[in-house]
Here is the input.
Amino acid sequence: MKTIHEMERDIPVIAETDVLIAGGGPAGTAAALAAARCGVRVMIVENNSCLGGIATSGMMSHWTGGTFSPIMNELQDACHQIRWPVEDGFQASYAAINHEKLKLVLFNKLDEAGVVIRTHTLCADVVMDGTTVRGVILESKSGREAVLAEVVIDATGDGDIAAKANVPFRKGRDEDERMQPVTLMFKIAGVDYSRAIFPGSFESYVQVPKGEIQALGKQILPKPAGHTLLYRSTQDGHVVVNMTNLIDIDGTNADDLTKAEIETHRQIPLIIDFLREYAPGYENCYLLASAEMVGVRETRHFEAEYIITGEDIMEATVFPDWIATKLLFNFDIHNLDGAGLDKNGAQHHFHSKGKYTIPYRCCVPKVVDNLLLAGRDICGTHKAHSNFRVMPICANIGQGIGVAAALSVKNGVKPRDVDVAAVQEVLKSQGVEL
Here is the structure.
């Protein structure tokens, strides 16, 4: 490969903070709020134009699962307290996401907590002292800059900071490193809610005049698309659509991401044609908007002090070093070869012994110090990941890790040496229940 030599240069240090959070999705924003409320200095850096990640830029339809999350509930309550004229007389599901409201609420909540917010900025590299992370190199229209921190939280989803810091990882499934498909969410309008169908899972089989909707999708839609997932929005007549699908995409590869954006956008008009023809209530639907980014479900799984497994989830394990509690979801493994559910997944037929917890050890990477993981990049198997990757669980993980980072700074100890019992007491004071 042809190369060029980049000249050495001095990078300005634009800030020094106690806790630096890379990534402003559900895990990152929850970590920022939790840490700031512990009284430490917090900065959050997000590559997109707003906070929220897949919940906003990714146009996710709703907060999913049966997880109890005080921070998520706080955000939902704040969104529902905002009344805009377009919603007068229409009551959406409590879990449905109004993307524009959530953007505003997240900016306001973090600003009120004293968090320094930087958007439109990529976390491009790490500042290392041996095996200790000392900060992050930023890249933006302002140029190349550095922020130093006592503790860095990687909430990028893909674990970009941990990868740069050389934390060992693997991708996808153990046997072949294949990863779950990616999806570009989009929203349609012109739907007659009085007649519309809303299949909400791969196992939602709905009879329509011309057949069963899932079977029709597999028969008619362009592969690897083929399933029908439709969700009520916060505006009457609007529906959020989770039906584009692309397999064999590596979300850490820019070429693959570009391919995914192109191909999923090409699927949208074909999906709308399908809905107009086969889905009752959708005869006059039309495209309103598509997400700002393709949704990536799975990439890197990092090595940490413990790897959470599907068995831990099925057994509803309560770990002594819990930092996230009352977690409940299914094994949402999308088919790695096409549309629908993977043979190892389970949605309606998922059964566990109850709600489980995430141990702190899953979030403490091996080898590298002053770095914590939060969100879907924590240490877990492919199957376990399909459960804990959803937004409410990521928010709970973020809250726990935000508190742990704050106590690390306040007590002058490495993150791996934090007293987890003390973290748990703070979490209880923040509304977390065991």
Remarks:
- The chain has two domains: 13-175+298-333+354-429, 186-290.
- The mean pLDDT is 95.
- The CA atoms of residues 67 and 346 lie 17 Å apart.
